[in-house]
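User: I'm putting together notes for a lab meeting next week and I want to include a structural view of one of the chains we've been expressing. I don't have a solved structure, so I'd like a prediction I can at least talk through. The sequence is below, exactly as it appears in our construct file.
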Amino acid sequence: MADGLPPIYLTQGDMDKLLHLVDAYPGKRFEQLERELVRAHVVAREAIPADVVTMNSRVVFEDEGTRERREITLVYPGSADIDSAKISVLTPVGTALLGLRVGQSIDWELPGGAKRRYRIAAVPYQPEAAGEMQ
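Assistant: Thanks for the context. Below is the predicted structure for the 134-residue chain, given as structure tokens.
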């Protein structure tokens, strides 16, 4: 954690899809996601720990500044639906949560310069742990 950021983990399948997404939409908007992908530890789908936030996982996280807890599902942009708590990986909070494990926290800068510290409280559902193919 030399850069001050917690380690993150991705499955090879998630990495491949996310790299394709970044390549399809080049530009400044996805720089944070690209930085996260570069530093991720890539593991086989069957080897990903069950407490890691993978794509299509349901996650409970806490904003450590406000103590507000939210439960969301981390999804690809085409599946995002704020009313159903399906948050795109391309949003600042979505990118921040990707690949973290329960108990980990990350400091994240939002558009406009505001900073938040998010902590993973639980991963009630992860497709890989449930044995579901993505």
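A couple of points you could mention at the meeting. Residues 11 and 45 are 5 Å apart (CA to CA). The first helix runs from residue 12 to 24.

User: Perfect, that's what I needed.
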